[in-house]
What we know:
Blueprint: H1 2-13, E1 19-22, H2 31-43, E2 49-52, H3 57-62, E3 69-74, E4 77-82, H4 92-100
Parallel strand pairs: 1-2
Antiparallel strand pairs: 3-4
Helix pairs in contact: 1-2
Amino acid sequence: MIRTLTHLGDIFLWPQNTVIIIDEFENSLGVNCLDVVTENIITEQDKLQFILTSHHPYIINNININNWKIVTRKGGKVSTHNASKFNLGSSNHEGFIKLINLLEDQI
Length: 107
């Protein structure tokens, strides 16, 4: 519950154009509040920039695939790519399955 309140506080109290980074977004969020916090992030995305990581099906299916950025690393070089580069399909679920099954040399 504390993590939920922290995320909601971030969403509503940070100034416009703030970048908020949350690793493993769903960790410590109960299933009863995951949808509410995710929906608030989606509706506030015009005011704040969110960088989230997640493996949770609910989040994957509710964040538009056009908003996904794929981060890769080869040696010391880190790169970001639009999801469209990988031809992941139109479904978020299908796209996530294809993405986790890509071989390292395909990225």
